[in-house]
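Reopening this one. Same input as before:
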Amino acid sequence: MSGCAIPVAWKVLPAEQAGSWRPYWEGLLGALGKAVPPEGEVIVLADRGLYARWLGDAIRAWGWHPFLRINLGSKARVPGEETFEWISRWVPTPGTSWQGQVECFASKKGRVHGTLLMHWEPGYESAWVILTDLEPEEALVSWYGLRTWIEGGFKDFKRGLWGWHHSKMERASSVERLWLAMALAQLWCVSLGCQAEAKLEAEFLQNEPGASLPEGHIAKLRRKRAVGQLPARRLSCVVRGRLILLAMQYQSQPFAVGILRAGPWPQTITAPQKQLTPSALKKKKTQKEKERRKRQKRRAREHARARA
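Same output, byte for byte:
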């Protein structure tokens, strides 16, 4: 909502506990499915480490659309092809895009018919590869940018605002109740922030700074923002809303409830502000590979201890 993530369902489990995530994911989707109006169009986004065929099936069972990111190390074929080839062939270099209906994954057990949306934005390490059941002309790969709100939400819940990482709770049930309180606080602050932002935008459009200056004025000549374009957001809606609540408290004003504004879905992919050099990219890739091998060795040791 306006660039801020608001938790609506969660499950907290004890750490280092063996088991499958599937029943918890299906339970969360079931709880949400009963609360979401059936006439609403819902896309469900997930990072590439969470893709599973059963997850896409569970999403479609509620009439929603999976919008799941997958790895480039997958194979697919378009209608009319006999063999499966690496999907990286369609986005070989930065700046390339591709979309179309495919039969994805060579394994018969995991094979899926759907649409691939692919784009490699210059400055990123690899391409975005989205698997969905929407038609190619009905979806944009840039919609996946909505998932980045989750990263901002994690920051809000930790060092950004609510300080969840300082909690000393050890029981999962207690953490779940704490998340309920934080989710309500997040919702309240975002609603107040949205209301304040809408008011500021209306004031800006009515009295645009510098509108009365002559056309040849240096301020207008150096202006980078187009006429009528709103200034960049400097405070997130949740931070703005929290500051408003604090001001109300200090001034002994009655607390208010704001509004929620749904912004437009992203139409383009935002390029990274700072692009890494080839040597930095290679170093980062090497570090990731080392971390992956460490995780593999750690899991192997845990499995060995479990069998002993």
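So the earlier flakiness isn't reproducible anymore. For the record, The radius of gyration is 23 Å.
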